């Protein structure tokens, strides 16, 4: 009897473990097998998630019951309805069937308008389609950011000194060489995930009606190798610390670089020593500001960079055809490319016929185009170019009318080149003591950002007033684990993030 009871208990535990695990899936084209990036996965008609660029998605643990209903949709494909049980039985694969696709010669109603006419209608309807809606509500967002530095060349060495011996210079250069070798061998990377509740209400403020917002972070995680600096500033600071260990702690220095001296820039031995200094920080303020800037930069109406919708006169548009979408009916497909020199992007727009709203935009810098930068390589030894900018925007129609940003992804990158001599000249003693070193840096910096709208619900003004914003601390981990977000809705990470681990482990 004891044996039977134990068997029953083990079976029960096994069942509980089974239902408690999150479930992963992959969405592909049923005909070609190609992954479908940024497909929408609705969970029980409430929360929704998006597939990543590899078509992957994960149903969080709390929704992983076999009976959970999933609605998988993708522009130009037939929507599929299935349960978590069905997903498991299909080895985690969702195969969407391509929908009808009509060329211009077949579709003879409004599609007979040329691309420029369609884009003119899109521009005229921008304000109405994307106007601000909503107050007294709580919206939940998921935000992921990552940064990676790939140094192509990095050198730093003390070339001469009027004060220190050759052995001391040799020792300092050895430390610098070790630091740079570590950076080259293990290029710095960092990933940060944040799930956040954003509250908004409309009320009287100082005699005027205005909108107030408050935020509460539900969970925040960082994946990083703490042994490596992640930003250019961190790298320069670490290198400077090494250099300054060989300077007189009682002296002050001014910096001279190339032809330009900076007499008003004074540094000392402890200029880069932050160990004993408590830096004021506010993670909540930083991340909410970052999300706000990212959302503003993803606005087709207000973004200064994403001009391919509102600046029709500098782009060339071509009508590709028409497809069907379950939520929006007929959808025009428009390709765009630069028509004038100041146009930067090419890509594809998907436009709802019913109101000329852009419901999806895929964009990237056209060949030879750059967002900006400086090139003083031969004068000052400095060059910086913003040479990567690509992304996807997905908009959904809201119940109040108009469209909101459902999902956005963006990759931005820059090329950095520095080749300059630096001199530290002692302020006292008539400036006779000098230390000169050479810095050569060539690197690529790549940043990725993803934003996903998860859910929205109404709140009362009293509920808003009762909220209290509190700062938070990131949970820092050395390597990715699927358990990190098993209880919450999130964006399935790419394989690069899954393979991340601390190189010092």
UniProtKB/TrEMBL annotation:
InterPro entries: CarboxyPept-like_regulatory (IPR008969)
Keyword Hydrolase in annotation: no
Segment forming the signal sequence: 1-20
Keywords from the named record: Signal
A Pfam family the protein falls into: CarbopepD_reg_2
Keyword Signal carried by entry: yes
Protein name, per record: Carboxypeptidase-like regulatory domain-containing protein
Organism: Flavobacterium rhizophilum
């Amino acid at each position: 009897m004891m044996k039977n009871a134990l068997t029953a208990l083990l079976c029960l535990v096994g069942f509980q473990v089974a239902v408690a695990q999150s479930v992963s899936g992959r969405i592909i084209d049923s005909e070609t097998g190609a992954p479908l990036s940024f497909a929408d996965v609705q969970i029980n008609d409430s929360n929704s998630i998006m597939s990543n660029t590899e078509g992957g998605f994960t149903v969080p643990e709390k929704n992983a019951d076999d009976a959970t209903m999933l609605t998988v949709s993708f522009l130009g494909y037939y929507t599929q309805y299935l349960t978590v049980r069905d997903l498991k039985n299909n080895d985690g694969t969702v195969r969407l069937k391509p929908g009808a696709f009509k060329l211009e010669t077949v579709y003879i109603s409004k599609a007979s308008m040329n691309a420029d006419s369609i884009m003119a209608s899109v521009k005229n309807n921008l304000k109405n389609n994307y106007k601000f809606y909503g107050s007294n509500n709580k919206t939940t967002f998921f935000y992921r950011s990552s940064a990676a530095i790939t140094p192509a060349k990095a050198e730093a060495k003390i070339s001469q000194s009027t004060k220190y011996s050759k052995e001391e210079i040799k020792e300092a250069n050895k430390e610098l060489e070790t630091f740079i070798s570590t950076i080259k061998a293990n290029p710095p990377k960092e990933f940060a995930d944040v799930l956040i509740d954003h509250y908004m209400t409309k009320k009287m403020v100082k005699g005027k009606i205005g909108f107030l917002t408050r935020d509460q972070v539900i969970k925040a995680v960082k994946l990083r190798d703490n042994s490596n600096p992640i930003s250019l500033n961190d790298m320069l600071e670490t290198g400077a610390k090494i250099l300054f260990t060989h300077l007189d702690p009682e002296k002050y220095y001014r910096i001279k670089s190339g032809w330009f001296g900076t007499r008003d820039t004074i540094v000392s031995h402890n200029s880069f020593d932050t160990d004993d200094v408590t830096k004021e920080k506010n993670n909540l303020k930083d991340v909410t500001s970052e999300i706000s800037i990212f959302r503003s930069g993803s606005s087709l109406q207000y973004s200064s960079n994403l001009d391919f919708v509102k600046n029709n006169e500098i782009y060339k548009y071509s009508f590709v055809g028409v497809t069907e979408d379950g939520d929006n009916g007929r959808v025009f497909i428009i390709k765009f490319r630069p028509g004038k020199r100041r146009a930067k992007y090419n890509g594809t727009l998907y436009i709802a016929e019913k109101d000329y709203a852009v419901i999806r935009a895929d964009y990237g810098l056209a060949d030879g185009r750059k967002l900006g930068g400086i090139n003083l390589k031969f004068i000052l030894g400095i060059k910086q170019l913003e040479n990567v900018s690509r992304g996807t925007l997905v908009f959904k129609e809201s119940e109040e009318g108009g469209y909101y940003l459902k999902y956005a992804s963006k990759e931005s990158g820059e090329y950095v080149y520095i080749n300059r001599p630096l001199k530290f000249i002692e302020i006292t003693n008539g400036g006779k003591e000098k230390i000169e070193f050479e810095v050569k840096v060539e690197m690529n910096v790549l940043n990725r950002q993803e934003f996903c709208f998860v859910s929205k619900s109404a709140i009362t003004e009293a509920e808003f007033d009762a909220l209290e914003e509190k700062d938070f601390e990131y949970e820092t981990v050395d390597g990715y684990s699927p358990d990190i977000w098993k209880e919450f809705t999130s964006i399935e990470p790419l394989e690069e993030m899954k393979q991340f681990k601390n190189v010092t482990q």
